[in-house]
Amino acid sequence: xxxxxxxxxxxxxxxxxxxxxxxxxxLHALDQDKxxxxxxxxxxxxxxxxxEALFDLSNYYDLDxxxxxxxxxxxxxxxxxTYLRPIKEGLFKSEHxxxxxxxxxxxxxxxxxxxxxxxxxxMDIPYTSSGVLGAAIGQDKVIMKEVLSHxxxxxxxxxxxxxxxxxxxxxxxxxxxKDFGLPLILKPANxxxxxxxxxxxxxxxxxxxxxxxxxxxxxxxxxxxMSDFKEVNCAIIGDGESFRTSVLEEVLKDDxxxxxxxxxxxxxxxxxxxxxxxxxxxxxxxTSRLVPAPLSDEMTEEIKALALKAYRVLDAFGCARIDFMxxxxxxxxxxxxxxxxxxxxxxxxxxxxxxxxxxxxxIENAIKRYRHKEKMSFSFNTNILSTFKGGRS
Length: 393
Known about the structure:
This protein has twelve helices and 17 strands. The chain has helices spanning 16-29, 63-68, 115-123, 132-139, 141-150, 163-168, 170-180, 206-213, 260-264, 297-313, 345-348, 355-374, and strands spanning 3-10, 35-42, 48-50, 71-78, 81-86, 97-99, 101-104, 158-162, 184-188, 198-200, 219-224, 230-238, 243-245, 249-251, 289-290, 318-327, 330-337. The protein is globular. It starts with a strand and ends in a 19-residue tail after the last helix.
């Protein structure tokens, strides 16, 4: 009997469409001879859907029309079984779809940030991404910086502020940011895919750009703008005990920073990596890149070592991508992505791990972690309430 793999994607997030693209790549990469693959689309209103139409990316051009073709379901648990149940069941039979492993391909809030991971923990089902804590830290750039800084990892000068700071003392905040130094970069703390990022060059544009970034998040990361840098990324796959590092890539910018279009439309100047076409178009596969990154062997190994340290410090699991800036001989870690676009398959294939094999590894790791946690104790064999004789306090 085939193992049933439920691929979760979508959800209420600015990166909704990118999640759909990454998930479609996974759906076509999973070995259909080994697994029964069940796509689970989380709509922007957070309803869950299943159906064959989810395998064809062309159906996603009209999301309302797509949902009309699908079956709305809920995620349920009965003992040790977790299953998908139609909201409207048949009159004479109950149609349940059991799930063995949840393959998470959600990007951003309501999926990559620990919320969906927590749901999987409560439903007692193995899942492929970082756990609740690692996912939450990985999504919040400010908390991530705090942890990385504490561990001595090299970061560009940074600070942060909240929307409340602007409301309570706008002049004080503007003065603080001016003292921090221009130019600077403003980033929503909990978004990815270069969404909502603003570069501030002049004092006159500072307030307007702050308000623009606050459209996306109440907490804003501020970084010193660094010019003439190379963006270099490294992916890691880990199972809590062993770790694999990918080849490095240099991502070619299309502007001062790599924009959303540069990542997903592929309009940066420079070489593009050769990619398989079946089920692998779009997403981060469209980014212009140099693979392997043209760096010295010594710097390559240093970046890999820093990536591994960050991965372990942030309690990551499964596939994560760690991003760096390189300026001459200086290396700065920028962030860790716990569910990277396209699951960074384009980096793993360079070390003889094709996308299908990568998916196999992630599923195997998820099961391994689940079985390990089954052996741990999470409660005591006692019931204090059985001896409680008090009344309502």
